[in-house]
Design a protein that fits this description.
The protein has 6 helices and 5 strands, in the order αβαβααβαβαβ. It is α+β, with helices and mostly antiparallel strands. Bound molecules: flavin mononucleotide.
């Protein structure tokens, strides 16, 4: 496993990492056409599959919402907003959230609560890793994206429309070409806050 890496690859890897370190989430109002095509979405899913996954349980699944399916999701968002007490104008804003991103990817978690070896929190970590890898791949392919949820993930109509038995709707990844790309250093402080010596 320790084969020498040619220096050109190291340079490529460094450039890729530097590009990755510039990733910020890009919200739906800054996402425009074109969205990723099927081949690019498959690459994002491949990246998601590289998330650490104790027991190889594959505790996540993605569902693509694109083209005409966006209108169906908008109707679900609008109905959920009305059920939550929003007026017609507020519900339309929610519907617009479904229509705006060129591609939306629903993230479903399939957590096995009774697994004998892998507790639920480890499975959730895999789901998080999958989302992060998916977003990182989108960024490296030149797209912007943002993970979104909100109370509507718990709306019974929306949940039933996306989830199979035992699945939880985590939320949606909005994807598209970024009309504007946030830049600059991480807002979370330096890496030394996250990485410290122990002992
Ligand atoms: C599971 C999950 C759900 C989220 N839901 C929302 C949301 O509904 N609205 C929102 O503004 N940000 C939400 N976020 C946070 C954004 O996706 C994003 O991480 C945050 O704005 C920080 O931006 P950054 O990725 O550029 O650091 C969610 C993040 C995760 C992991």
């Amino acid at each position: 496993m320790s084969a020498a890496v040619p220096s050109a690859s190291i340079n490529d890897a460094d450039a890729t990492l530097q590009h990755l370190l510039g990733r910020y989430s890009v919200g739906p109002k800054h996402l425009v056409e074109p969205g990723p095509d099927s081949a690019q979405l498959l690459l994002m899913a491949e990246a998601a599959l590289r998330a650490p996954d104790h027991g190889e349980l594959l505790p996540f699944r993605f569902k693509l919402v694109r083209g005409a399916a966006r209108t169906r999701m908008a109707a679900l968002f609008e109905a959920a907003a009305r059920a939550a007490g929003k007026d017609a104008a507020g519900a339309l804003i929610d519907a617009e959230r479904a229509l705006r991103p060129p591609v939306t990817v629903a993230v479903l978690a399939r957590i096995d609560l009774g697994h004998p070896l892998v507790p639920a929190h480890e499975q959730w970590v895999c789901v998080g890793g999958a989302v992060a890898n998916f977003l990182n791949a989108a960024h490296l392919l030149g797209f912007g994206g943002k993970m979104l949820s909100g109370a509507k993930v718990r709306d019974p109509g929306i949940s039933a429309a996306f989830c199979g038995p035992g699945e939880t709707l985590l939320g949606w990844i909005a994807l598209g070409t970024p009309a504007r790309r946030p830049a600059g250093p991480s807002r979370k402080g330096g890496a030394t806050q996250a990485l410290q010596d122990w002992g």
